[in-house]
Design a protein that fits this description.
Order of helices and strands: EEHEHEEH
Largest sheet: 5 strands, mixed
CATH architecture: Roll
Strand order of the largest sheet: 2-1-5-3-4
Shape: globular
CATH topology: Ubiquitin-like (UB roll)
Number of strands: 5
Structural class: alpha+beta
CATH class: Alpha Beta
Distance between the termini: 26 Å
Length: 118
C-alpha cells in the first residue's frame, strides 16, 4: 500500500491505491484549508480551489483533470486539488503551499521566503 507523507504535519499514513487525497487528509485530521476556507469551501466538488496542495512526485498521483487545470494549472504541474486527486504510489504532500513566484514576496525584504520548501 502506498504511503502519503504530509510534510507540514510530519504525518505519514498508508492507504489503498486510488484513495481520494482530500478524504484521506480529513480522515487523519490534516488541515487542508487556510482560514476562512476552513469554514466556507465547496466540500470536495472542485468549485473553490481551496484544497490546493503541492505534490512531491506527479507520477504518484492521478493525472490533472480539466477541473484542476482551471483552478491550479497556472501554478505548475505539481499543484493539485486534493478533492480530485487519487493516490497511486508513495508521495509527499504539502498542504496550503505558498505561492512565492509572484507578488509582494518577490521584494528583497522577503527574499528569505523564496527559499522555503512550501
Amino acid at each position: 500500500m502506498p504511503t502519503v507523507r504530509f510534510v507540514k504535519q510530519d504525518l505519514t499514513v498508508e492507504c489503498p491505491v486510488g484513495t481520494n487525497l482530500r478524504a484521506l487528509a480529513l480522515e487523519h485530521e490534516v488541515d487542508l484549508y487556510a482560514f476562512p476556507a476552513n469554514l466556507i469551501n465547496c466540500r470536495g466538488r472542485a468549485l473553490c480551489g481551496t484544497c490546493r496542495v503541492k505534490v512531491g512526485d506527479v507520477r504518484a498521483v492521478s493525472e490533472m483533470t480539466a477541473e484542476q487545470a482551471k483552478k491550479v494549472g497556472w501554478e505548475g504541474p505539481d499543484y493539485r486539488l486534493a478533492c480530485k486527486t487519487q493516490v497511486l504510489a508513495d508521495v509527499e504532500i504539502i498542504t496550503n503551499p505558498r505561492t512565492t513566484k509572484q507578488g509582494w514576496t518577490q521584494h528583497q525584504t522577503y527574499k528569505w521566503m523564496q527559499d522555503l520548501p512550501y
